[in-house]
């Protein structure tokens, strides 16, 4: 990368949240069909060849995967050039790049940066500082998403909450984010009542200080809907998901991960109501967005493959379901910790299909693996353990 462009990128990362968010958004939105050529006839001929031989969606996914890997290398180099300063600006730099890495599935790299940032924040700012709270939240997010360490994540989120309640106003947006984070973990641990309370507190804050069309408001609606779905309150869940989707596209962007989450959750409700074709359509829309924005090896892409597999299994298409479950399992085993509950979910789903196909030995092996993970991470009283 030329020095002037590297400096510009560095300033974007340091400068403000909009710069880092814009960087993240651009990583998955390169379109080959938008490329230029000096001669229009050549451009059209090339595009026609690409469309005939490969197809734009497949090539766009490959290009965006390469772009994400390249950007990771560039950002890692930027971190290394600043490492010796070990100051508050470096801590902020680590946090910002760590967020980009986490969103793009580079969880180990993200966790390393956030831990480095926390050590500096504690020395330079002390425990009761906004930057320290932010870093606790960032570490908790990685522990939740990548490691499946729900109790570790909850500990970090609660540490952030203690600080924020002390130094921020009760209606501060950062407080809403932490309530949301705690709610997500509580839902994972089966505490649906506690999760619902946290998400409703987050929504109340966001509605009081943000526009009703703000993306974070949509996130709250989506989170509340997901808890209601897990509580069996499907009509209430669908209502919340539709509220999330009613937020204008300008808040999401056409290919935003939050839009994929809304589609994903609506798909769950449609499936529960027996509308398998409708559910399949929503999950496939979500998968297309996630492949475009996140790349093929991201945990959320694995989630979409898994969801499609669940619908196909309900439709009696066991071969199709098994293919999707194995694809999901392959991604999760490669990017998540080996004891992550999502790995257990994929193992369980593979086992259930093998059972339907009469492969009882193979099914038992997968289900026992899933049970071992869930017992170690969730304990013997969690609903997911009872299922097995």
TrEMBL record:
InterPro entries: TPR-like_helical_dom_sf, TPR_rpt. TPR repeats lie at residues 218-251, 302-335, 344-377. The keyword Acyltransferase does not apply. Keywords: Repeat, TPR repeat. SUPFAM superfamilies: TPR-like. The keyword Manganese does not apply. This is Hydra magnipapillata. It comes from Seminavis robusta.
